Amino acid sequence: MSFLGVAVVRQYERGVVFRFGRLRATREPGLRFMIPLVDRMRKVSLRTVTMPIPSQQVITRDNVSINVAAVAYFRRVDPVACIIAIENVQTAIGQIAQTTVRNVVGRSSLDDVLSDTETLNESIKEILDRTTERWGVLVELVELKDIELPQSMQRAMAREAEAEREKRGKVIAAEGEALSAGKLAEAADVLAAHPISLQLRNLQVLGEIAIERNSTIVFPAQFLDSVRDLSAFVAREGGPSADAPAVNGRTAAGAMS
């Protein structure tokens, strides 16, 4: 109804008034009156617009062909420039966004595209913001939302990841073997210094085996020798205290004779 001289501007809009084709003023939200048949108003929305950037094929710096899709968020901050500086601001932003995404991704390697997307997003946003500033538009955010790799590249990356995990597993196993060998060497030194401890360890192992009642224990000849050595050791340790009274008795008998 602007041609009748009455218009309602919503809170999220601004009205740009033209009089006989010339810019007259910018109207704030509310009920606005104009000169009928003379003034014309065009309303500009200041809300944030979500613009999907269609998927497009891009060749990266290391000659890998991928499909990249993105999304951009922008809003109009200068209602006059949005109308006067460019014919269709949304179409223009969509075209420049596709070109910028293709150029930025094409200058990057595949590893950077997959692992450093935040830097790419910021680079695309800065380029778009500089380009659209003269159109009265502020680009708030750009995100790469879909990166599609060829099937052959996916298989190659899967094999690489699997090989990397196998390498880490072998390194961990080797470190465990080295640590185990060092501890075994320390244990062997202790057992060599105290031979009886080896026999005690054998008895401990037999005790652990005997807990399972369905086990059959076979004593090898070497183990019997170990048992005899253990008995001899116990006899040597307990012998002097047991023979001391007899020696004293013989000594006393000789003195009496």
UniProtKB/TrEMBL annotation:
<dbReference type="InterPro" id="IPR001107">
    <property type="entry name" value="Band_7"/>
</dbReference>
<dbReference type="InterPro" id="IPR036013">
    <property type="entry name" value="Band_7/SPFH_dom_sf"/>
</dbReference>
<dbReference type="Pfam" id="PF01145">
    <property type="entry name" value="Band_7"/>
</dbReference>
<dbReference type="InterPro" id="IPR001972">
    <property type="entry name" value="Stomatin_HflK_fam"/>
</dbReference>
<dbReference type="InterPro" id="IPR043202">
    <property type="entry name" value="Band-7_stomatin-like"/>
</dbReference>
<feature type="domain" description="Band 7">
    <location>
        <begin position="4"/>
        <end position="161"/>
    </location>
</feature>
<protein>
    <submittedName>
        <fullName>Slipin family protein</fullName>
    </submittedName>
</protein>
<comment type="similarity">
    <text>Belongs to the band 7/mec-2 family.</text>
</comment>
